[in-house]
Amino acid sequence: MVARMVRKQVLVQLDDAQVAALDRAAGGTEASRSELIRRAVDLYLTAFDEAVADVRYAEAYRRLPEDLEEDAGLRALALQAWPER
């Protein structure tokens, strides 16, 4: 059984060039303008979430930078347990 998501209608204003580009993109596919816009919004929101995560990671790294001496010690221990071939 496939669950249907409830959709909310939202008015989005596009200029003529955007509508023409949407029509070209939808041409030859079974996707509607609305479907293309939904896909584009999903892609944008995913990219936005990833960008926010990247910024948070960079800020955390600046607050607590990598300890190269500690990493070298851990690598030496790892090589003792699992020597390189």
Number of strands: 0
Major beta sheet summary = none
Overall outline: elongated
Runs in which pLDDT lies below 50 for 5 or more consecutive residues are none
In angstroms, what separates the terminal alpha carbons? 52 Å
**Over the alpha carbons, how many angstroms does the gyration radius reach?**
24 Å
**Structural class by helix and strand composition:** mainly alpha
Helix content: 55-70%
| Beta-strand percent range | under 5%
Taken in chain order, the helices and strands follow as HHH
Mean pLDDT: 89
Counting DSSP H or I runs of 4 or more residues, the number of helices is 3
Task: Write up what this structure looks like.
The protein is mainly alpha-helical. The chain has a domain at 37-85. It contains three helices and no strands.
